[in-house]
Design goal:
alpha/beta; 7-stranded mixed sheet; globular; binds 4'-deoxy-4'-aminopyridoxal-5'-phosphate; L-tyrosine-2-oxoglutarate transaminase activity; pyridoxal phosphate; Aspartate aminotransferase
Length: 391
């Protein structure tokens, strides 16, 4: 039966990472994968997480099976983190622990297929490389809408124009903050307009928030989600703890459905649990237990996360300053306004390949670079290289 398997190309990101690892040049720079890196090029485990792991090792709680929805206390804390401690919408939310943000996206894809089988899900172009494959695997029709910078935020008029074919019940996927790969985020006015558009056209937003805390701050980064939840009866949300708790390989996230009324919650939860049950049964307890201790030490967590965000902002600003000094085209200055770890360099695939072959600077052919992969000591070299290939 194996001869029926399709022949697949290697994943572009992981393929490029293998190429980077094989490169013998010591000065090479990995700006490929979306993980935070410190000045030593390491992805550190947060101190607050280390302390939580020590505490858990001491108490050695049972490893017996847990409920299908995962850790209830974690789910409640995540709901408050996403909607705000004092939100009046908290009682409308059904939240289930998932296997990372990816698991949340897939669970919500399966959920949409169950609840609204004919729905089209609209994803951003450019967008996160895994959105389309995930939703197509759930059996959904996927179409793109453009995500372009405007003077203040994103070009909402272009978006609304391109969504002319969207039908009531279709799902509009929006990155909650720190858009991957462009770094372009909506302004407050853009969010208000998007919420009004969804209301008028009866679209259901799915807010994918994988970088909460990397834009303007933990609570600031949910402003767009809040605007949608205040305006609309039904909002879906996938959230990840991979970046903001640094729990990448421990696979922690949530899928949240903010339902039109409280009485829809039990039915929604049963369906989400059942979708998880037929896939992996239940999500991992250990990472949720760590997260609960992190929530208990919130001040320390926020301080560590603020330091991470400030380092990325510093690198972004320094890179732009250096590019300006080196005479790189003015189009590179747009990077200053971007949020989070990513930006798309205004370079062609051939120019990105030259960055790799001539300078050992590895970003995707699309121009996506992870700013956190830069080291302060390499900024000048990187800016010279970028200005050179752009010339
Ligand atoms: N959504 C977006 C926009 C992402 O960039 C990512 C991963 N970087 C995810 C979801 C998936 O996150 P996780 O690693 O927690 O599965």
């Amino acid at each position: 039966m194996l001869h029926l398997l399709p022949t697949l190309l290697p994943d572009p990101i992981w393929g490029l990472t293998a190429e980077f690892q094989a490169d013998p040049r010591p000065e090479k720079l990995d700006l490929i994968v979306g993980v935070y890196r410190d000045e030593n090029g390491q992805t550190p485990t947060l101190d607050v997480v280390k302390a939580a792991e020590c505490q858990l090792a001491e108490t050695a709680a049972t490893k017996a099976y847990r409920p299908l929805a995962g850790n209830a206390s974690f789910n409640a804390s995540m709901t408050r983190l996403l909607l705000g401690d004092t939100s009046t919408e908290l009682e409308r939310a059904a939240t289930i622990q998932t296997v990372g943000g990816t698991g949340a996206l897939r669970l919500l894809g399966d959920f949409i297929k169950l609840a609204q089988p004919a729905a089209t899900i609209w994803t951003t172009d450019p967008g996160y490389i895994n959105h389309r494959p995930i939703f197509e695997t759930s059996g959904l029709r996927v179409r793109d809408y453009p995500w372009r910078q405007s003077a203040e935020g994103i070009d909402v008029d272009l978006i609304f124009h391109c969504l002319a074919d969207a039908r009531p019940g279709d799902v509009l996927l929006i990155h909650g903050c720190c858009h991957n790969p462009s770094g372009i985020d909506p302004s407050a006015e853009d969010w208000t307009e998007i919420a009004a558009f969804c209301a008028k056209r009866e679209l259901v937003p799915l807010v994918d928030i994988a970088y909460q805390g990397f834009g303007d701050g933990l609570s600031e980064d949910t402003a767009g989600l809040h605007r949608l939840v205040e305006t609309l009866p039904l909002v879906l949300c996938s959230a990840s703890c991979s970046k903001n708790m640094g729990l990448y390989c421990d696979r922690l996230g949530v899928a949240m459905v903010v339902a039109p009324e409280e009485r829809a919650i039990a039915k929604t939860m049963r369906n989400l649990e059942n979708l998880g049950r037929t896939n992996y049964s239940m999500p991992p307890e250990h990472s949720a237990a760590v997260a609960n201790l992190v929530f208990n030490a919130k001040a320390q967590w926020v301080a560590e996360l603020d330091a991470i965000r400030n380092r990325v902002s510093y690198l972004r600003k320094e890179l732009c300053d250096t590019l300006e000094r080196q005479g790189a085209p003015a189009s590179f200055q747009a990077l200053r306004r971007h949020k989070g770890m990513f930006s798309l360099l205004p370079l062609s695939p051939t120019q990105m390949q030259r960055l790799r072959s001539e300078y050992g600077i590895y970003g995707s052919d699309t121009g996506r670079v992870n700013i956190a992969g830069l080291r302060a000591a390499d900024l000048s070299m990187a800016a010279t290289a970028i200005a050179d290939v752009a010339a």
